[in-house]
Amino acid sequence: xxxxxxxxxxxxxxxxxxxxxxxxxxxxxxxxxxxxxxxxxxxxxxxxxxxxxxxxxxxxxxxxxxxxxxxxxxxxxxxxxxxxxxxxxxxxxxxxxxxxxxxxxxxxxxxxxxxxxxxxxxxxxxxxxxxxxxxxxxxxxxxxxxxxxxxxxxxxxxxxxxxxxxxxxxxxxxxxxxxxxxxxxxxxxxxxxxxxxxxxxxxxxxxxxxxxxxxxxxxxxxxxxxxxxxxxxxxxxxxxxxxxxxxxxxx
Length: 251
Ligand SMILES: C[S@@+](CC[C@H](N)C(=O)[O-])C[C@H]1O[C@@H](n2cnc3c(N)ncnc32)[C@H](O)[C@@H]1O
Known about the structure:
By secondary structure, the protein is an alpha/beta fold. The protein is 35% helix and 18% strand.
C-alpha cells in the first residue's frame, strides 16, 4: 500500500513522494502472517466492527505492548480508557488481560451516542480548523451504541462502561479512590484530553503508563497541546513520542 503525503511536492522528475508501507520492517519480519499482535488487533476490529488503517495498527501496537508490560511487571492498579468508540482498543486490551488472568478493573468512559465533544480554540489550529460541516462529520463519525458495545465486551466481566461527557462522567461512585497502572486517552480533542490527564495522572501508581492516541495529529492538534501544557506542570519520569502520532508517559 502506498500512502500519498499531500504536503510533499512531486520531485523534479515528476515522481510522487509517498510512503510504501509494504516495506516497513515490522511487516517483513512477520512474513508468515502469524504476528500475534496483528492477530489480536484484527480479531478486536472484527468483533467490534471497527475501521482499520496502518497508523492505527502502529499506535495500538504501542498500547498493546504497554498493557502487556504493565500487567506482567506487577505495577499495581486498575486500567482505564477515555474514548472507546465501538470498543476496538478496549476489546484488544481486555482480551490480552483475560489471557494473562489479570486481576483488576478496567474502567471505560465515552459519550457513546454523543460522539466527540465540541471543539475549542485549541483544536482549531492549522488542519484542525475544519469547516462546520466537517466538524459535524467528525463528531458524528465517532458516535456508537452503548448497548451494542456492552454486548461485544460481555466476555470481559472486569470491564465496566460509563456513559457520559468527560469530565462529568468521572463522578462514577468509587472511581476517585482507585489507583491506576495504565490509562489510554483517545478522545481526540483538547478539553477531554486535558480533563482526563488532570483526573488520572495524580491517581497513577509509580511505573504506571498513560498512552495518548492523538498526540501529534494534524487533524486534532488539541491533544498534543493539552499534553504539552500538562507536562510543563508535571514531569513524567519518561516520555516517548511516536513519529506516526501517539505518545507514552511513564509516571
Ligand atoms: C477516536 S474515538 C476512540 C477510538 C477507540 N479508542 C477505538 O479503539 O476505536 C474518540 C472517542 O472519544 C469520545 N469522546 C470525545 N470527546 C469526549 C468527551 N468529552 N466525553 C466523552 N467521550 C468523548 C467519542 O465519543 C469517541 O468515541
